[in-house]
Design a protein that fits this description.
elongated; three-stranded antiparallel beta sheet; six-stranded mixed beta sheet; alpha/beta; 11 strands; Rossmann fold
Length: 294
Amino acid sequence: MLDAAALLALGNLPLVARLIADGAQAGLHPSRRRGAGLEFSQYRPYQPGDDLRRLDWRLAARSDRYYLRESDVDTRLTVRLVLDASASMNHADAAGVSKLAYARLLLAGLAHVARQQSDAVGLYVLSAKGLQTVPPREDTGQLPRLFHALGAATATGTLPADATTAAPLLSRQGNTLTVILSDFYDLEPQSALERLLTQLRAAGGDVLALHLLAPNELTLDYPAAATLEDLETGQRVQLDPAQRPAYQQQLQAWLRSTEQSIRGHGLDYHRLLTSEPPAAALRLVLRRRQGLPA
């Protein structure tokens, strides 16, 4: 599995998406199952407890045997990919891979898997500019649209305070899976991001929160004389090596509270690092979605 820096060096998002999807070696879900649907598939013998409404009475009259009509039930999803494009996503790890660049790779791989499963997939880029949307579709031209939008996405400013910006995300039809990829630095009580999570849960469907961080954010692995700058506010602080233990303590407390807050909304939560090969991260997500061990 290639790491993110190697994949980015290829400079071809459609190719990279296919490589990531193939490397993940798993699907979101079975695309079709046997059951009581609209499209006839086969007969099977009646068993006690079966729904009598599915009995083929004409066949029973001719053969004096009881059979049920089975059909393919369509279990395809509408997959909605939500990208946090606030300025903090410009932060890069030691290999020079920014969280935004990694997010592009991972979401492109997810989109490719969704289309392999014949799911409708759409993209929602949430930034200071508002919400840029590629509505979910399942036609052959959808992946190029998504790849173009991902490639054009830039991380600027802070997330909009107006929660109505995300209104297109709150309407849904049929089975939906909403995947939010963010560093969740904007997740505070009464923030727009917190309200969005609340509203998504109320709207129904499955919601998966992917918490993306760079390893150097966790270790504070910088030279002793480094100056750190908040990418969203511009505030600067001089790094004091003696403060590393206190920083680690506060960081772990923030990570716990962030996970508890997201899970408290009834959402699925996974933490990812930009140092992980995107295919490995995608496989982990897909296997956990299927209830399989990582």
